[in-house]
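User: Could you write out the 3D structure of this protein bound to iron/sulfur cluster? I've included everything you need below.
Assistant: Certainly. Input first, then the structure.
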Amino acid sequence: MNDATLIANDAKVIVQAHLDRLGEPKDHHLSPDVKQAKFDQIKEELKKRNAVLVAHYYCDPDVQELAELTGGCVSDSLEMARFGRDHDATTLVVAGVKFMGETAKILSPEKTILMPTLEATCSLDLGCPVDEFSAFCDQHPDHTVVVYANTSAAVKARADWVVTSSCAVEIIEHLDSLGEKIIWAPDQHLGRYIQKKTGAEMLLWDGSCIVHEEFRARGIANMKALYPDAAVLVHPESPESVVEIADAVGSTSQLIKAAQTLPNERLIVATDRGIFYKMQQAVPHKILVEAPTAGEGATCRSCAHCPWMAMNELDGILHVLQHADQEIHVDPQLAERAKLPLDRMLSFSASLKR
Ligand code: SF4
């Protein structure tokens, strides 16, 4: 019998405590002159350190623009990992959240991995503490453990497979075809979406993304009533009711592709608004509209913008290049163990492309 069962934990409490320590996110708008001066300084420092900037789609537009201008990359977490591993630079500056820096270190242990801040984390990572998760896995030894990339190095080290949202469905389909039962962590919404798509037998951890969890089907339906010609693009970390009304569901890269292939001129986008920078480049003539969020959720601090991604600022990038004081370290033994499920994902997704 295919059955998705939720495992209760205290993810929300842990995340709220972290957000309370963090304070409100900042919102900077730099004048063109100030921005250019910062870009020039950072470019110089990148050269001095033989470093490259790797940025996630959810970072602020200035950071994404800088990554593009300096020969770095702007992408989803799977592509960030690949790009960092394959690039010649000896130092990677990862603009994103901590698990992305850890993944870079695991895949490139010989490189120096710097981040503008080590405080930038993720509600999914926070909501899946390794001790609790490991104890749960131990209770189900006949299950294959599949974890989302948004987890700590220690949780990855406990897993058989790591996946990102761009390859998760295919990997679970593959495991299901082998008759394997699956433990999925930490995002419950993505897990439920995959379970529904594949019919696989999955036990779901009950973590969630504080950004995507705030999207509401009702608000989006109201917006659709206003713009009946619009298509709705949804990231599968959103609640099931939101996924159900989508015209396209997918990872950040897949949503950008959908924006290009759908015929609609107006797109309602239910993911972090950081994606608008690259999406608008891909469809310059289309109108992109932010999907409404509930705004009143207990953990919503910034609605459709991740408060941790927003901590990646130009000043932080410059500072870390000058001082190298925000470096990612992963215990080498742990890294070796965590690399196995990551390598499995990378070779599986490479085989999909062939
Ligand atoms: S947007 Fe959500 S999943 Fe992405 S880093 Fe922020 S909290 Fe984590």
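Residues 58, 97, 122-124, 150, 209-211, 272, 306, 308-309 surround iron/sulfur cluster (CB under 6 Å).
User: Perfect, thank you.
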